[in-house]
Amino acid sequence: MAAWSWRLLLLGAMVYFLWQIIGRISFVVMPVVVALLLAALLYPLTRRLRTAGLRPIYATWITMLLGLALIVGIGFLIGVRANEEFPRLVLQIQVTVRNVQDWLLHGPLHLKEAQIADFVDQLSSQITQYRSQITSTVLSGATAVVEVLTSIVLILFVTFFLLKDGDRIWAWFLRAFGGAAPRVDRAGRAAWATISHYVHGTVAVAAIHGLVIGVVLAGMRVPLWAPLAVLVFLASFIPIVGILFAGSIATLVTFGSQGWVYALIFVGILVVEQQLENHVLQPLIVGRALEFHPLAIILVLAVGGVLGGIAGAVVAVPLTAVIYRALPELRRGQPAIEPPAEGAPGAAEAGAGDAAPEPGAVEPAPSHASQPASSGQGAQEPETARPPSGAGEAVSPQRNG
Description:
Layout: H1 2-24, H2 26-51, H3 56-106, H4 113-129, H5 131-174, H6 181-219, H7 225-235, H8 241-258, H9 260-290, H10 294-331, E1 362-363, E2 383-384
Antiparallel strand pairs: 1-2
């Protein structure tokens, strides 16, 4: 127990300082993480294009342009519908406000117009009182917009080079690990496959969620149902809080346009659909992609949310899955193989962890060697050791297709 304790303390200190460093350079770390997830999402298309015979640069450009075209097309359709439906939404909200005011005056509350006017005056005075704070928030929001635009540019650059030169970058990264390169290579490939499965599963769940909410809003004839469906899709990537935010906005729009009856119906459908997503879709689709049990998905989400809040809930499942898949590969030893000789075929493919052969290293020829002994020699000359055909295959950057 003492031996394990001091090792865990040392590991905890290392993780703490690493977390502090990441916090200081989060402006760079977060775009790189997002780019890594985007690369995991887009890489299957790039791989298919490269398999079809396109050069890496052309396959990467086609993938990036198709992704940007999809985003721009969805944004254009949303903008067109918003431009058409927003005036009608404003009129319906005005009618709803008048109905609510009439209900407050003549309903069970029996409020007076003076009370409603006092409430409006108090709200206006509070807005005036905190005007400076609101102004500073707007200015900080403008600064945040600039940072977001810069991050988007960085994300595009990092995603492009990960798709184009990912195998070369990984081969360069492995050189720093020396004899441990084969293990790190296996662990990295297992982690990459896990991240890819997680991203694809999460996108599928978010798409189902946005589609269901969009159909419900369209069936209720709620204005701006298409932008609201896209908002729900994007918010589904943030567990719990994201859907609460998007659902609140959709509920307010439904209430303002169709009244409180439709708003209550929408809230009921949203709650039922959210429960199905949390307890059925998320564990089955994402859990099956990661080969995690549904109970493990739910527990990891709960622990991540308690320890790290929103960010912890977002990264809890992929981080746990990566650790779960990478650790066995790091612990698993590699079968012993003979090192490649200088100038032998396959020596160029040998990884950084392959030891160089000692000069003059030889081994006795096997008794069943096909080469006959020279005439006049009583014993067979030893021949130079040759590597097996698979030497260095674990760290070859081209083995991933």
